[in-house]
Amino acid sequence: MTAFAAEVLARLPTTHHDYPTLCIYEADALLRLGAIAKALERHQQALAIREGLATAEPERADYQRDLSISYDRLGDLMQALGQGEAARRYYEQGLAIVEALAEAAGPEHVDYQGVLVVALHRMADVEPKRGVEHLTRAAVILCRLHDAGRLFPEQERTLQDLEQRLRDMQS
Question: Which pLDDT tens digit goes with each residue over 82-91?
Answer without folding.
Answer: 999 999 999 9
